[in-house]
Amino acid sequence: xxxxxxxxxLLLCAVQAYPSDTYLANIYGRETRSLNGKWxxxxxxxxxxxxxxxxxxxxxxxxxxxxxxxxxxGLRLNVPGDWNSQKQELKYYEGTVWYARHFNSEKETxxxxxxxxxxxxxxxxxxxxxxxxxxxxxxxxxxxxxVTDDLLQGDNCLIVEVNNRRQKDAIPALAFDWWNYGGIxxxxxxxxxxxxxxSDYFVQLxxxxxxxxxxxxxxxxxxxxxxxxxxxxxxxxxxxxTTDSVGVAQGVIHTKLTRWSPENPKxxxxxxxxxxxxxxxxxxxxxxxxxxxxxYLNDKPLFLRSISFHEEIPQRMxxxxxxxxxxxxxxxxxxxxxxxxRLAHYQxxxxxxxxxxxxxxxxxxxxxxxxxxxxxxxxxxEKAKKMLRETILRDKNRCADCxxxxxxxxxxxxxxxxxxxxxxxxxxxxxxxxxxxxxxDNVYFNSESKLFEMEDPFIDKLDMIGINKYMGWYAPWPxxxxxCNWKVALNKPLxxxxxxxxxxxxxxxxxxxxxxxxxxxxxxxxxDNLKMFRNIxxxxxxxxxxxxxFRSPTRFHPTNQEGWNRKGLVSDQGQRxxxxxxxxxxxxxxxxxxxxNLK
Length: 599
Ligand code: GCB
Fold this sequence. Notes:
Shape: globular
Strand content: 25-35%
Largest sheet: 8 strands, parallel, barrel
Bound molecules: (2S,3S,4S,5R)-3,4,5-trihydroxy-6-oxo-oxane-2-carboxylic acid
Number of helices: 7
Distance between the termini: 36 Å
Structural class: alpha/beta
CATH topology of the largest domain: TIM Barrel
Radius of gyration: 25 Å
Number of domains: 3
Number of strands: 35
CATH architecture of the largest domain: Alpha-Beta Barrel
């Protein structure tokens, strides 16, 4: 009863936090026209394009007129796609590129039109027919701009100024351990909706109850007194609601249903209709909670068999951006025997999230608050909050998303604590059905107590604590692995969110020498770490770092790395290293015997 009351109160707060008037939930369920394809591009090394107003896209007429630019007959870039992998000269480019394309549009009475960008890396300004209509910061979340009144009948010229320069106040900031891909890296589309449309909805199972579906549906323009119908045909359920004074309709469905799980990733067709709009989506229902030191999915404790990957196709040395890329990454994860993926270190594209859900893979999604963020800057805090908000908005109906990660490897300080507190507050205002987590790297070996310990006042606020610990690589073993005992956050579920070491595929060497960069060293390190994990009493799962070797400019070794982080269980060419088999065997044992405690 008490839980329900708290839920309703939080729901009320949440309603105010949503931009219900002009939002567009479930973009792939809308009437869209793709603006993907080849775009014209201009590389603006000295960032002079704005001063030269190249967004006006002028053409010379008469005798004395000329312009020192033209989008025609120059560079062409694929959208979606990063520029780094499309042109050798742009491999290391960090700066501005202008993208341009034309498209036709017709005025339609009773309709509204939006431009929707699934992801532009890192910041951008959008110009339509010579006029700036919007901007966005943050590579990994979508944004939309209403263009109903800006579109011309017939030809329209869309220009996007994209910049991926690293900055101190950005998220991530100046240095990070992955490639800084720039460009329009995700789908772009023109969306058409009715004047009064279904802008947003949150349809999920109650936090604790297995047979109560809670629905909150928002209409554009905060329209009051509209009838909204939610239908789940397979359950034989139809819920009729009416919107309140802020255009929100809320209700519950009581029903017996099959809950989504890795073993049975059941999804239901859900249909929402109003007098003017209709939208459908496949939605799954599950309960996730942390209690004591365990994670419960559908009231059953489980061990999280996870892996991480970047949104990168190593063979192509570029960003993953299509449905088939998502299939490639996730099927390699699935082959390892996982029931979960930690999507590192940022919000990955919707193809990945939706495919994971269909395959029965739980997700930890995080925002790129990675190590050295400027915690003292109020602007950076606002950016982080916006990123978290945009993540939750996009994926709140994805039952696969079980964990929202708010930070990776941040160290306690007054500024850091205050920053993360605020961020967490924002997250909880938006979503109370998931678990909030973070990954920390401040566990250390206390030579007096002879225990692995950690002091961080913030971790008490989280539902599960992720620990990144590189024993045998960045940290030498202080004792035999089987003698390493942990006393960290004993009252909470503890998840090893990273561990591992580098090895070059096919390189054979001494299993006791780190600098051999050998598969044997990596294989032994994995076996040793698995021994230690048995001594973590509150362990609820592990996520080795990382599935594939990935590109990183911070990896300087000329023969073993060449700009690659070699911690993959799978090489950049897709070959499985010896350590892959260690984890595969371990995960198979856990799965077959349904093991929850390693002890
Ligand atoms: C970490 C980071 C991850 C790095 C990894 C490494 O702790 O969280 O982003 O890539 O270590 O390989 O050093």
